[in-house]
Amino acid sequence: MPSTLTRIATAALLTAVMAVAQAEVCALDDTGREICLPAPAQRIAALSPGATELVWSAGAGDQVVAVVAFSDYPPAAREVTSVGSHTRVDLERLLALKPDLVIGWVTGNPQEQIRTLETLGLPVFAIEPREFEEVSSVIERLARLAGTEVAGNAEAQRFRAGMAELATQYSGLAPVPVFYQVWDEPLMTVNNQHLIGKVVALCGGDNVFGALPRLVPRIGDEAVLEANPEAILAGGMGEENPEWLERWRAYPSLRATATGNLFFIPPSLIQRPTPRLLDGARLFCEKLEIVRGRR
After folding, report:
1. Mean pLDDT for the chain overall
2. What's the pLDDT tens digit per position in 216-256?
3. H helices of the chain, where?
4. Whether residue 15 has pLDDT greater than 70
5. Tens-digit pLDDT profile for residues 162-202
6. Pairing assessment for the beta strands 205-207 and 176-181 based on DSSP bridges
7. Rounded to whole angstroms, how far apart are CA atoms 92 and 192?
8. Which domains does the chain have, with CATH numbers?
9. Mean of the pLDDT values across residues 117-123?
């Protein structure tokens, strides 16, 4: 029969094992891998501007120790140490910051660098939301890994509810043939599978290049003239720089130009898969309502 000392030791061991199991946090990333941490992350590295925003949205901004170039939102992110760009991370500088969780971008970060980080024992949680619901899901999963579920889940639900409200508000409206310009040189757009393409559809737009096979197709001015969209919406090189629209004013016979339906959308509101996409979608929908009102 076990002695009292043995029973106490066994109970203590079981308590320790249970404590470790309870402290461990796990979540599936967007490649389908389960990433587990022994405890919620306290030192997070975000390797894209979108990842930075999403970590802050999850309520874990105070735990971010490394970002990359153009991580400019929220403003506090500008004060965090930059370790390069999303296409080339300074691994030595990153490792010196001792992150216990790295947030990578599935198609944005160089895979050889991601593999190096994993070889060195750093957990890399890869994200790339391509649906509205996936934006909320990523926030919830990041919050789980960071131990900030209350704040993260609330923000995820706010975004989820806001997008659902827009879907109801703009369903069944007369479609508007739309060209969305995501880049200038070379001229680029998005197809229907892209998250921006889903914003077009949400607002009752008909993406004139939606059927193209690539997520971000390269096109030419001639293709836009042939498609003859009723509205053109574009970002630009900066949040208040609508110069990309000037190119289309040179084509007065283009329907969007002739009707004055050339609209600027601040790029960070529409081109990053973060909760600010809700603000971008609202603005996008409002522009298409202007088009309908001009008919």
Report:
1. 91
2. 999 999 999 999 999 999 987 667 677 899 999 999 999 99
3. 4-23, 49-57, 91-96, 111-119, 132-146, 149-169, 195-202, 221-227, 246-249, 255-258, 267-270, 277-293
4. no
5. 999 999 999 999 999 999 999 999 999 999 999 999 999 99
6. parallel
7. 40
8. 19-161 (3.40.50.1980), 172-293 (3.40.50.1980)
9. 94
Q: Taking a C-beta distance cutoff of 8 angstroms, is the pair 262, 249 a contact? A: yes
Hey, what are 126's tokens?
Answer: 């890869």
Whole-angstrom Cα distance, residue 10 to residue 13? 5
Q: Hey, what are 146's tokens?
A: 């960071």
Residues 6 or more apart whose Cβ sits within 8 Å of residue 14? none
Whole-model pTM? Answer: 0.87
Alpha-carbon distances, residue 10 vs 4, 7, 90, 276 (angstroms): 10, 5, 47, 52
Q: Hey, what amino acid is at 206? A: D
- Give the largest CA-CA distance in the chain: 95
* Residue 240: predicted pLDDT: 66
Q: DSSP characters for 52-68?
A: HHHHHHTT-GGGEEEB-
d(CA 259, CA 263): 12
Q: What percent of the chain has pLDDT over 90?
A: 86
**Rounded-to-integer distance, Cα 22 and Cα 286, Å:** 47
* Collapsed DSSP state (helix, strand, coil) of residue 100: coil
**Phi and psi at residue 283, in whole multiples of 5°?**
-65, -40
The rounded distance, in Å, linking the Cα atoms of 74 and 145 is 20
Helix or strand holding residue 213 (H, E): none
How would you class 238 by CB atoms within 10 Å of its CB: exposed for 0-12, middle for 13-18, buried for 19 or more? exposed
pLDDT digits (tens, 9 = 90+) for 73-110: 999 999 999 999 999 999 999 999 999 999 999 988 99
Amino acid at 169: Q
